[in-house]
Amino acid sequence: MKKLRMAIFDFACCEGCQLQIVNMEEGLLDLLDIVEPVEWREAISDQSEEYDLAFVEGSITREEDEQRLKDIRQRARILVALGACAVNGGVNRLKNAPDMDEVRRCVYGNSATMPHLATAPTKAVGEVVKVDFEVRGCPMSRREFTYIVRCLAAATTPVVPTYPVCVECKLRETVCRYEFNEVCLGVVTRAGCNAPCPAGGQWCYGCRGLVDDPNVNGAKDIMDKYGKTVADLRSRMELFNSVEARQCQGQ
Amino acid sequence: MTINVHHVTRIEGHGNIRLQATDGRVEKVLWQVPEAPRFFEAMLRGRSWQDVQTVVSRICGICSFAHSLASIKATEAALGLTVSQQTDQLRQLAFGGEQLESHVLHVGYLVAPDLAGVKSVVPLVSSHPEVVKAVIRAHRLGNEWMELLGGRRTHPVSFRPGGFGKLPTEKELGDLKGRLMNVVQDLKLIAATVTSLAGKLPAFERPTEYVALTSPGCYTFYHGQIGSTDTPDTVAVERFEEIANEHVVAQSTAKWARWHRESYAVGALSRFKLNHAWLHPLATTTARDLGLTPACCNPYMNSVAQVVESVEVVEAALELIDQLLTRGIKAEPLRPVRPKAGTGVGAVEAPRGTLFHRYTYDDHGVCTAANVCIPTNQNHANIQKDFEALLPEVIDEEEPRVRLLFEMLVRAYDPCVSCSSH
Question: Which of A70, B54, B62, B361 has a CA between 20 and 30 Å from the CA of residue B129?
């Protein structure tokens, strides 16, 4: 099998998803049997003109970055959005406010009008170019990344769960975070991560995005049962799903 | 000579090197940071005290434990929460894992290719298989150590204001101890290899101000006050804005810092210079074998100081585990928190240097203002000053060599550029 020429690019993000690739340790050596990294600024000093498989990490916040992303899209046969920032904007969307000048002043004070500090509302990669596949999560799961790369190398379509994180907590026998009087977003969040956060002693904050058809009534029942309000849920949902959090206003 | 390196490779984030000289005369020498800022201080306004650490952890994928811990310390200070000795020691133990993981990643994957004259770690897999395997094992251990105590290896979930959401068991800590004892051999091999290649590090010296947390009696990463090589006095972390003096410059979306001079340096070399007296025995020996002395003013030696610290955190962790196991791990359920208005600062030594978080909360525990000061912010001006001193020294060398020396200089700082443009 011919190796896929793989490139990895990053925009506004913490580069934690790329780190997960390095964190595969010996598994990364196995992956190198099916892909050949031809451009990956964080790890290697080579560059390339075209790629079979381009991974894009991070969200898009500037005009110049939109241009760079469009250029990458033209060179790439398959483009994959890597991680929450790329898939839906992630926490970076929290900065999206009606007044971007005020956001700039908050950080840069009197220097905020300097041209190099310009910023626009955060966009996901898919709002700028066509995205062929997504690897969700903050950070993305190494297991899911490997699975998706192997599927693409074998020219098959990866299948990602459409059920909520609660299912994975039940399978792991993790005690529900609501039993600790906490608001957990596992009830509406897409599974596939194997629910490490509730198992690690914290609620799910929804970094993989919502399931396709969230059971809103079921979520409301749980809120009622544990004395929580939709406002509690919405505040937490804003972290990684601010668009959906706004939509559930008034529900 | 014109050198334009657009987006330096093998560093975290985006930085450019711009050099121009004619007939031995320097015309331009710039360390540019065009990274897209993300405006975290604006993002935090309106967030609950419970969610702040979840957001700020995302400032950095490589030092997310540092951000989580600094954040939790700041929130605890603001809300008046105290933690048990067990919580304090478990956090310090967890943080050692991040230092090991981050330092081994930097030295083994990002710096070593320069010393071996290759473009990435990939060719080293066949040319130096034993030491690459040692690097992978040490990196894996760092990660699994973090995962055990933080719940995840990136963006931890077990640390909570007031304590832990999930505690490790005594058996798990005992297992970790065994693995830490085994990794010492790998670290010795890594140190010996770096020693054999240390001659490849440029002999460039530029004294500057070196800043780190300091706490007498301990090579500290987690507690202490702000120390500097320019003054014997220490400064409380609550006054960090007065020492960092952050300001905006046209060549960088990340702010710069200055204290007693035009610039200062943070990171492993600064910590070593200020706190070397309290290194554990094997770390002390490792420093001596590597030729690292407290008088060192060579920024390229920061990577060597990271090797010393990799040994240090393992020795410190072994001690911490012994103390924790002697007392036994006690269940300490999180107590309910009654939010109150207040301001708090948290500071830690991230792998790349001193990190500060300040938050202000209203009486519902909602964040109304935040300020985060990143290690690489504090290093950017110092990198620029190093550039200005280095170029005249190497101006007669071949262009590819000059380019490599500048790229290596940037890498030596282990910059977290996207972190600095948070």
Answer: B62
Give me the residue label for tokens 């540019």: B32
Distance from C-alpha of B176 to C-alpha of B47, rounded to nearest angstrom: 36
Q: The domain spanning residue B97 has which CATH number?
A: 1.10.645.10
Asked whether the beta carbons of residue B42 and residue A13 sit closer than 8 angstroms, the reply is: no
pLDDT the model gives residue B325: 98
What angle, 0 to 180 degrees and rounded to 10, lies between the N-to-C axes of helices B64-79 and B85-104?
150
pLDDT tier at A230, thresholds 50, 70, 90: confident
**Of A204, A211, A194, A206, which is closest to residue A239 (Cα–Cα)?**
A206
CA distance A154 to chain B (A): 24
Per-domain residue ranges for chain A? 4-153, 165-247
Q: State whether residue B83 is helix, strand or coil.
A: coil
Q: Which CATH architecture has domain A4-153?
A: 3-Layer(aba) Sandwich (3.40)
- Chain A residues with beta carbon closer than 8 angstroms to that of B151: 196-197, 199-202
Query: Residues 70-99, chain A: which have Cβ within 8 Å of B?
Result: 90-92, 94-95, 97
Cα(A57)–Cα(B294) distance, integer angstroms: 40
Non-local CB neighbours of A221 within 8 Å, separated by 6+ positions? none
CA-based max dimension of chain B: 70
The four Cα atoms A22, A27, A30, A32 give a dihedral, to 10 degrees, of -10
Pairwise CB contact (< 8 Å): A45 & B10 = yes
Question: Quick count: other Cβ atoms within 10 Å of Cβ B366?
Answer: 19
Q: Which pLDDT tens digit goes with each residue over B286-327?
A: 999 999 999 999 999 999 999 999 999 999 999 999 999 999
**A118 vs B: CB within 8 A:** no
Which residues does A170 contact at the CB level (< 8 Å), separation at least 6? none
Sign of the alpha-carbon dihedral angle for B312, B314, B320, B326: negative
Whether omega for the bond prior to residue B351 falls within 30 degrees of 0, making it cis, is no
The mean pLDDT of B206-213, rounded to a whole number, is: 98
- What is the Cα–Cα distance from A164 to A4, expressed in whole angstroms? 32
Range of the domain at B267: 2-420
How far, in Å, CA of A237 to CA of A215, rounded? 15
Structure-token pair, residue B58:
């995302």
Axis-axis angle for helices B129-150, B170-197 (nearest 10):
150
Nearest-Cα distance to chain B for A135, in Å, is 16
- Which pLDDT value is given to residue A164? 97
Identify which of B267, B327, B284 has the alpha carbon closest to the alpha carbon of residue B88. B327
Q: Say how far apart CA A35 and CA A29 lie, in whole Å.
A: 10
**Pairing of β A51-57 and β A76-82:** parallel
Amino acid found at A238: E
Could you identify the residue written with the tokens 């099916």? A34
pLDDT grade for B414, boundaries at 50, 70 and 90 = very high
Report whether A10 contacts B7 (CB < 8 A).
no
Strands A76-82, A133-135: pairing is: parallel
Into how many domains does chain B fold? 1
